[in-house]
Amino acid sequence: MRVGVLASGSGSNFQALVDALHREGSPARVTCLICNVPGAKVLERAAKAGVEAVAIDHKTFSSREAFDAQLAKELGERGVELVVLAGYMRLVTPALLSRFPGRVVNVHPALLPAFPGLHAPRQALAYGVAISGCTVHFVDEGTDTGPIIAQAAVPVLPDDDEASLGARIQKEEHRLFPAIVREIALGTISVEGRRVKRPGVIA
Question: How open is the CA angle 58-16-50, to the nearest 5 degrees?
């Protein structure tokens, strides 16, 4: 399966995907990266990994829909079958989602539906939760509201700050996200309404 990654920042999740998927026998491979922030570190990571990278500044477009239509065009021209949001800091619109129905996934640094949107570890600390974590989910038009595929829990320690909690959550993201992409590529994941079914996993 040809995977296209959308990213906005340093690209640690992009790197984790490349490291996990670019192995002999893998059912999926990252074939392109599109970054909406020219000069972001993820572009350097893509170059080192030999992955085609395209920088498209969203600020040059008249609307969110116009930008997403261009994304859909670029991904479609490259034969992308699954779109993966890896640290992509923008909401997506039907202009992209309609081109890849049920084939856009994201990882979020919280146990959704708790703490959607920006600064999830900061939100978790402010709320005083004992357990946080990460969620891999299908993407819809809302803010982190799509069907949940898988989650991993991370304890919140008494001396945690945003950076330390975020780092431990990110470690779980790097483990869980590529595993779920592999499952999707193998065709073992199905969705009925909001319920995601994975063989061998008790719902």
Answer: 70
- As assigned by CATH, the class of the 2-197 domain is alpha beta
pLDDT in tens, 12-52: 999 999 999 999 999 999 999 999 999 999 999 999 999 99
Catalytic residue from among 22, 108, 119, 137: 108
Nearest to 137 by CA among 121, 113, 159, 154: 113
pLDDT tens, position by position, 147-188: 999 999 999 999 999 999 999 999 999 999 999 999 999 999
The domain segmentation of the chain, as residue ranges, is: 2-197
- Cβ(6)–Cβ(67) below 8 Å: no
Give catalytic status of residue 22 as yes or no. Answer: no
Distance, C-alpha 27 to centroid of its chain: 18
Measure the CA–CA gap between 59 and 33, rounded to whole angstroms.
Answer: 18
